[in-house]
Design brief:
The complex is a heterodimer of chains A (564) and B (434).
Chain A: E1 3-12, E2 17-27, E3 30-32, E4 39-42, E5 47-50, E6 52-57, H1 62-70, H2 72-75, H3 97-106, E7 109-117, H4 122-131, E8 136-141, H5 147-155, H6 158-172, E9 178-180, H7 184-188, H8 208-221, E10 228-231, H9 241-250, E11 262-264, E12 272-273, E13 281-282, H10 284-293, E14 297-300, E15 308-313, H11 316-326, E16 330-334, E17 342-347, H12 353-368, E18 375-376, H13 390-398, H14 400-409, H15 413-417, H16 429-444, E19 462-465, H17 478-486, E20 490-493, E21 496-500, E22 503-504, E23 512-518, H18 521-537, E24 556-562
Parallel strand pairs in A: 1-4, 1-5, 6-7, 7-8, 8-23, 9-10, 10-11, 11-14, 14-18, 23-24
Antiparallel strand pairs in A: 1-2, 2-3, 5-19, 12-13, 15-17, 16-17, 19-20, 20-21, 21-22
Chain B: E1 5-11, E2 23-28, E3 31-36, H1 40-47, E4 56-59, E5 62-65, H2 68-81, E6 85-89, H3 95-108, E7 111-114, H4 121-130, E8 131-135, H5 137-143, E9 146-150, H6 154-157, H7 161-164, E10 181-186, H8 191-194, E11 198-201, H9 207-218, E12 228-229, E13 232-233, H10 234-246, E14 249-254, H11 256-259, H12 264-278, E15 283-288, H13 295-306, E16 312-313, E17 320-321, H14 328-333, E18 339-343, H15 347-350, H16 353-359, E19 364-368, E20 380-383, E21 393-396, E22 402-405, H17 416-432
Parallel strand pairs in B: 6-7, 6-18, 9-10, 9-14, 10-11, 14-15, 18-19, 19-20
Antiparallel strand pairs in B: 1-2, 2-3, 4-5, 4-20, 7-16, 12-13, 16-17, 21-22
The chains are: A alpha/beta (564), B alpha/beta (434).
Chain lengths: 564, 434
């Protein structure tokens, strides 16, 4: 089907289009320069953006499902019956697969990156990804606390490490290298954690810093589209910004002409000062200062909003700490030789001082970082809050008035222990378009694969919102922003209208993006005996049954890279 | 296939929740002639036994052999006309088939429930109350120095569990049983208990009291614990807690002895809370000894499809979860459903008499490779390929790790996945037009 979208106000940051009134042609699922027999949609001054790219979210796999199983009370929320077209769906912070696809698509999102795939349970993640309708997706395997990784790092054998990472990416049909509390999760297998970047990991005699540097080398040698994707040590702790900044500094002399060399994720959770919960405070200014003065590092936010949500991370020891704080229910699942994970329900309350400060940090970061191309908009769904809070977050970033209204509702500690009240900056339409489209696509490296922009030949993933950017002042009329971003007038996925006015009208199956790094056979061959030993001696599953079979990627999109 | 002997390696055993994936199966022509490395139970399943040979429809009380198309048509007609279908079983088939089954229940607005509701359902309820401190079986193999079987007897029910994953398994930080302490808590001295360093005989129905006493001792309040709890002396319990606190990595494998005895899900809430509290002293985890090889898979698939792990009622159009209401036994007891769809399970052998009696009053559709007492109640019988032997598909081990089962030999039978794809399409066509 061909489409002609007429008279939209287009923001397409990758192509330097900033609020131009223009027409867009769609043909054969791609953006085209012309189209025959096109169905015309006159959007008459409405906001037109590339489909949203969610760069870090938890939507599929063991953790999310553990959350669903543990929280029937969450699944009771937001229930919608099946229709002839759509499946029954429900859930809030841990929605079922259909709710995830429909809701993201209705909000104009067309690409989702599951940010933490336990390699041994990668099959499970892919089983769920298949079932998430409409959107394209990918998943990043967690690769830092692996025994093989740590042994290679300890031996300083970067060839072997690179081969191992390549093997793992292939075996898991994964997208990139996710790092989660390096060293700390292996320590958690004995009920412990690491205290800082230079602590030694029990039994493996490596430090978090060494693991990070090693994986960065492997990442660059494999020429992966994305950089290492780092969940720093000491998440959620008072004073952790010191560790965060030190982590950033580890790669200060590493360069890549095409992209960042480190992406630091859910930075809000890593931007705190103080020594305890009493003097807990925002260090968003120091984080922003570093990001502003370095060009090889990017971040995403992990914004907190006040709600009942479900926290979930591969950072097992952190979830245990959250359980010790909340004493509600706690799920933990350590995966042999590789990773850990935990799930804890959590309520962020506006009158609870640390929560109010966390909220402030998440909003401060994008306002203090000068260049929006260094920032992916995320809530670390559902850790900061479910992704359905995006419209409210955009409104806060675009309107100081909205922030002032929020500040009246939250604990006054924010006035003394956070920076937000003093910030005047208001983001514009283009900033939002960058943080939700251009930047995540570019930082993940999928802009080159037709995502996050509307250039000729790009995938025709388009979001049209029922708001006229030339007529609305977002700073004053923030309620219109919230309403407009809640659902699109049209979401178009691969050239097909999938949502219209908050209704799902088509349910195509999306693609799964994965990376296939090619390396020298001789390098792989030197690594394999060690890996085979691990399977023989340590794993509880046979090596032949480990890799994710092709059956789990019915619509694959392979990104091949050549390692050096 | 040629008549030569071929050996299929890395075969995944479709019998119990251990889901051993190291079997070797010798095939001659299209016949399985030998199964290596499997336990007796797995071997017997893979070698095969009496099958339902053909689709059948009951007419005037007698089975009439029919084609697959006729049986599937009949099943689809019954299901499309049903106002309240009960779909039950699903523990011994693939996740792909389960997905289709859940979709079918959604389309007909029925109830779907798995064998978990008469097995580890109470464990799931406890997880919903207090969470789930677990790990994969390889963590146990590599690290555990304290292995506890509580109300579970792997020697009989999961014969290779101890050798592959737990007490006898050698791993990175453990040389196997020499490095491990084995504790068994049970109402009788089981075969598993024979080798235990510590066998604690529990008075039947006393597990809850014992967990409570252990938690009380652990929290430093042993002074309020009576001299004897559930047949176990206070001194013994104190000694056990001290041993547990000294462990580096402890694991409790919980079995039906605690899920289906007095206090049921409360037992599990109590033991999970105990494990949580133990984590202040030592790494401690709990793994449920799931019985059927893919009962875990039903819970996983049902959770991502509907938000809930079992006992799901679609009569509202969306998924509604209420164990005790939407569980199979209860739906039958209330004489509520107008069709029973029994898949890869045998409710007639396992359900209370009143529930079974009601199955005589409504049409019963059975999809299963094997005849069983439920077949005697069935009006439509659809034979299926044996998943993991004659059909590929995904299954979840007791530790929530999914493995793709292999197809070893060809078959004349349709797989569950194919059968339910066909039924689903026909039901949608009947209810909603093509």
């Amino acid at each position: 089907m061909s489409l002609l979208i007429k008279n939209g106000i287009v923001y397409d940051p990758i192509n330097n289009i900033e609020g131009e009134k223009m027409d867009i042609f769609v043909s054969d699922g791609k953006i085209a320069s012309d189209a025959k027999d096109a169905k015309e949609i006159d959007v008459n001054g409405k906001l037109v953006l590339p489909g949203g790219v969610e760069g870090h979210t938890h939507i599929a796999g063991g953790k999310v499902n553990a959350g669903r199983i543990m929280r029937p009370e969450d699944s009771r929320r937001g229930a919608e019956p099946r229709s002839k077209l759509t499946r029954a769906y429900s859930g809030c912070s841990v929605p079922n697969v259909y709710a995830t696809g429909y809701r993201y698509a209705k909000m104009g999102y067309t690409f989702l990156m599951e940010a933490a795939m336990p390699p041994m349970a990668a099959r499970h993640t892919h089983e769920e990804l298949i079932e998430i309708p409409i959107v394209d997706k990918g998943a990043m395997p967690v690769l830092d606390n692996h025994w093989m990784t740590m042994e290679c790092v300890k031996d300083g054998d970067m060839d072997k490490l690179t081969a191992y990472i390549a093997w793992m990416l292939k075996a898991t049909k994964g997208f990139g290298i996710k790092i989660v509390n390096p060293g700390g999760v292996e320590a958690w297998a004995w009920g412990k954690n690491v205290s800082d970047l230079h602590d030694r990991v029990p039994n493996f005699d490596v430090s978090p810093a060494e693991i990070l540097k090693g994986l960065s080398v492997a990442n660059e040698r494999l020429n992966l589209p994305h950089s290492i994707h780092v969940h720093c040590n000491r998440i959620g702790s008072p004073g952790n910004s010191e560790t965060t900044l030190e982590t950033y500094g580890l790669l200060s002399d590493v360069k890549n002409d095409d992209r960042q060399v480190m992406h630091a994720t859910h930075t809000q959770f890593h931007g705190y000062g103080g020594e305890n919960w009493g003097d807990f405070c925002s260090k968003a200014d120091e984080i922003a200062k570093y990001v502003n003065s370095h060009n090889n590092l990017t971040i995403d936010l992990g914004v907190v909003m006040f709600c009942d949500t479900t926290t979930m991370t591969g950072d097992g020891p952190h979830e245990f700490n959250l359980y010790r704080l909340t004493r509600r229910k706690w799920s933990n699942h350590d995966v042999e030789l590789e990773v850990g994970s935990g799930v804890v329900p959590f309520v962020y309350g506006p009158k609870i001082p640390p929560h109010a400060i966390m909220w402030a940090v998440g909003i401060e970061l994008p306002l203090l970082i000068d260049d929006p191309w260094k920032v992916m908009m995320t809530t670390d769904n559902p850790n900061g809050c479910p992704f359905t809070f995006y419209p409210q977050i955009f409104a806060q970033l675009m309107s100081k008035k909205k922030r002032e209204a929020m500040l009246e509702e939250v604990h006054p500690v924010v006035n003394s222990h956070a920076i937000l009240p003093s910030i005047d900056r208001e983001l514009d339409w283009n900033d939002i378009a960058i943080m939700t489209r251009g930047a995540p696509a570019r930082l993940l490296g999928i802009d080159k694969h037709g995502k996050g922009h509307l250039g000729i030949g790009a995938d025709a993933d388009i979001a049209i919102y029922d708001i006229a950017p030339k007529e609305v002042d977002p700073a004053m009329d923030y309620k219109s922003i919230e309403r407009a971003f809640s659902y699109t007038a049209y979401t178009i996925k691969s050239g097909e209208i999938v949502c219209k006015d908050n209704e799902v009208v088509a349910v195509p199956k999306g693609k799964t993006f994965y990376v296939d790094p090619e390396i020298d056979d001789s390098v792989m061959d030197t690594m394999l005996p060690d890996l085979k030993d691990k399977f023989k001696e340590c794993y509880s599953i046979n090596m032949a049954n480990y890799p994710v079979q092709d059956a789990y990627l019915p619509n694959p999109y392979k990104i091949s890279t050549k390692g050096t | 296939m040629s008549a030569e002997n071929t050996t299929v390696t890395d075969v995944v055993c479709p019998f119990c929740g251990s889901l051993c994936d190291d079997l070797e199966v010798e095939v001659e022509g299209n016949k399985i002639v030998k199964v290596k490395k499997a336990c007796k139970l797995g071997k017997s399943k893979i070698m095969g036994h009496q099958r339902i040979e053909t689709p059948m429809i009951r007419e005037d009380g007698e089975f009439k052999e029919v084609t697959y198309d006729e049986a599937i048509d009949k099943a689809a007609q019954i299901l499309a006309d049903s106002k309240r279908t009960l779909s039950y079983g699903w523990a011994s088939t693939s996740c792909e088939a389960i997905e289709k089954g859940i979709h079918l229940s959604e389309v007909v607005g029925g109830v779907i429930d798995s064998t978990a509701s008469v097995c580890h359902g109470p464990t799931v309820l406890a997880v919903q109350g207090v969470g789930s401190p677990g790990c994969t079986l390889g963590e146990v193999k590599n690290r555990a120095d304290l292995v506890i079987f509580w109300g579970s007897n792997p020697v009989h029910a999961h014969p290779r569990h101890q050798a592959r994953y737990s007490y006898n398994a050698k791993g990175f930080f453990s040389d196997g049983k020499e490095d491990r302490t084995l504790m068994v808590f049970d109402v009788r001295k089981t075969k598993t208990a024979d080798k235990a360093d510590e066998f604690v005989q529990v008075e039947p129905g006393s597990d809850y009291k014992i967990f409570s006493a252990m938690r009380t001792i652990l929290s430093g309040n042993e002074d309020v614990v009576p001299d004897e709890v559930g047949g176990v002396s206070k001194e013994k319990l104190i000694e056990i807690i001290e041993m547990m606190k000294k462990a580096k990595f402890g694991v409790i494998f919980g079995g039906l002895g605690i899920t289906q005895s007095r206090c049921r899900y409360k037992n599990l809430e109590n033991v999970i809370s105990f494990v949580d509290e133990m984590n202040e002293h030592a790494k401690f985890t709990l793994i449920a000894m799931r019985g059927h090889y893919n009962i875990g898979g039903f819970g996983q698939v049902c959770a991502w499809e509907t938000g809930y792990p079992f006992a799901v009622d679609f009569s509202r159009g969306y998924a509604w979860y209420n164990p005790g209401e939407a569980t199979a036994v209860d739906v039958l007891n209330r004489k509520e459903c107008d069709v029973v769809l029994a898949v890869a399970a045998d409710p007639v052998s396992n359900f209370p008499r009143a529930s079974v009696e009601y199955m005589r009053e409504v049409p019963v559709i059975q999809v299963d490779p094997y005849p069983n007492p439920t077949t005697e109640f069935a009006d439509v019988v659809i034979p299926a390929a044996v998943a993991g032997v004659e059909a590929e598909g995904t299954a979840y081990r007791m530790d929530s790790i999914s493995i793709r089962m292999r197809k070893i030999i060809d078959t004349k039978f349709l797989s569950d996945e194919e059968i339910f794809e066909k039924i689903l399409n026909k039901v949608i066509e009947r209810k909603e037009g093509a």
